[in-house]
Amino acid sequence: xIVAPVLSIYLYMLYICxxxxxxxxxxxxxxxxxxxxxxxFVRTAGDCVLxxxxxxxxxxxxxRVEKIEADSRGANVRxxxxxxxxxxxxxxxxxxxxxxKEVFLSDHSDIQSADTIEGKCxxxxxxxxxxxxxxxxxxxxxxxxxxxxxxxxxxxxxAVYCKCEMPYNPDDLMVQCEGCSDWFHPNCIDMTAEEAKRxxxxxxxxxxxxxxxxxxxxxxxxxxxxxxxxxKRRRR
Length: 236
Ligand SMILES: *[C@@H]1O[C@H](CO)[C@@H](O)[C@H](O)[C@H]1NC(C)=O
Ligand SMILES: *[C@@H]1O[C@H](CO)[C@@H](O)[C@H](O)[C@H]1NC(C)=O
Prior knowledge:
single chain, alpha+beta, SH3 type barrels, Herpes Virus-1, 2 domains, 8-stranded mixed β-sheet, 24% helix, binds 2-acetamido-2-deoxy-beta-D-glucopyranose, chromatin binding, zinc-finger, transmembrane, metal-binding
């Protein structure tokens, strides 16, 4: 909470003004140090951070800060974290529909020294991730919670698209059929990505055989996530 550092700075200033009360000195100074630390590194519990892995060849761990604590001297700042798992760290492993920046919020918590924090990162909802104009190194997204003992996901079913009936991978280009509004991977409809990008209108095989003559002025959308997030729900 931003309140903590602000309050401790306030208290420290109060101490400077009222330094006739010696007991306040210690408390306020420690509060100030902890507060400043909190302000510099993790401003709010619930913030997401990258943490240095013990094996430096591995990518940084992604974690959500649940609580920050320090000992009475304001030293040894420790953070309570809840880990995000990368798909390859899950029991089922990485699957084709998992995005490169996808992480799962696990039920696995830990206490870590604050100095393993490398920096802040952002774990977006699936929807807001698909709306990002540019994805930075520290942008991730999460659409599943993950039970680390059973490997189960929540939700256990999500919308699927295309002939391949796969959940949407935001890294992949898809084209939308103007007839049925389903989305398709160029690969699955015998097209290259380049050809798909050049399309003005697209009707999938089923729709074009049904409404061959229909012609609309609307343009085909590519990589437009809104509709995809809300439409069909079939089993994964
Ligand atoms: C994970 O699954 C086990 C077994 O079904 C269950 O007992 C446990 O509560 C689950 N954990 C969470 C956080 O849902
Ligand atoms: C196309 O039609 C067939 C037969 O009705 C159906 O099984 C299939 O799911 C449809 N394909 C799509 C992509 O809607």
